[in-house]
Every structure is written in C-alpha cells, then in structure tokens.
Amino acid sequence: MADENQLVPLAPATIHPRSDVESAGKFAVKPKPKNHPEKSSKFLVYFLASIVISGAILLIFSSIVLPATTPRVKLRSVAVKTLLHGNSTFNATLITELMIRNRNFGSFRFRNGTGQVFYGTVTVGEMKIREGRVRARDTERLRVTVEVGSNQSEARNLSSGVLKLSSHAQLQGIVNLFNIMKRKKRPEMNCIMNLVLRNQTIQDLVCD
Question: Is the pLDDT of residue 25 over 60?
C-alpha cells in the first residue's frame, strides 16, 4: 500500500533555447521594397508614344477626310446711299454687305484686305475690308462703305442711265483645323452689277 501512495516526481520540462539566428530573424527590420524607376520610365515612354500616334492619326484623318477648302467671298447686297451724276461724271456712296462663308471644320482668320470697283476697265472705287475671323461651319457678314466716282476723261456717255460696274477682292488668311493643321487660303471675289441712275438702285448683282 505504501508503494501505491508514493508520489512519482515529474521529469523537468526540456527547454530549447532559441538560437541567435532565430532571435535575430524575428526582431530584424525588414527592408522596404525598392521602387522600380525602369517601370515608370517605360510607362512614360508608352504614354508619350500614344500621344504622338494619336496626333499623327488625327492629322492624316484631317488631311484625307476633312481637307481644308477655300472659303467663299461674295457681295450679298449693295445699296446706294448718295448719288450725283452728270453727262459724263458720277460720284456715289455704296453700302455693301460682304459675306464670307467658311465650310471647314476649323476657323478661318483673315487679315486686312482691299477690293476694287471698276467702271469698264477703270478703277473708280476701293473697298477696305477689316481683318476678322469666321468660325467653323459659319458665315460672317461685313458692312463695307465704298466711295465710287469718275471724271470726264474716265467716264463714258451716261445717257443710257445705267452704269455697268464690276468688283474684285481677295482675302488672305489661315484655316485652322483642330489646332493641328493650318492651311493658307486666299478666297477671291468677282461680282458684276448695274447702277441705275434714275432710281438710284443696284440691280442684277451677280457674283461667281
């Protein structure tokens, strides 16, 4: 009975001390991941290349599908403000409305220009056209006052009561397509008209 109640001592627990390697591995500061500048450089190169390619495609598309056309210029109307005439002389003030039509998908900007009014082959008046801009697919109207007149050596016999006048003008400007393609254009105007002395009106105005 004494043997059965005797306590058996437990074996001491075996402790495995950690090695220096394990301890150092636990408390060591992990290095931060390094940046990859080569990846950023490649992305920048690809981004710039896509911009250049897109611009080239847009330029080719504009050149082939949307070519820059020459805007059209003509006299829409001519009114007589004042008129004085004799047998072989005349002086008149004409109020003209100049119309510039731009069919392009880009604006048309033009510089100051001039035009001439002819009686036969003699220049009897000058048109002064101020600079301006016509928006894409739009029409601009300009009011231009013209002083016309002739002396006895220039004018023919006015007994018919009708003066056959003609006018010519040319503008110089640039069509700007999408701020990428710019083309110089010189629209030209040629018109003919009849100045009726009796009722001081312009008739049969035709422009090509």
Answer: no
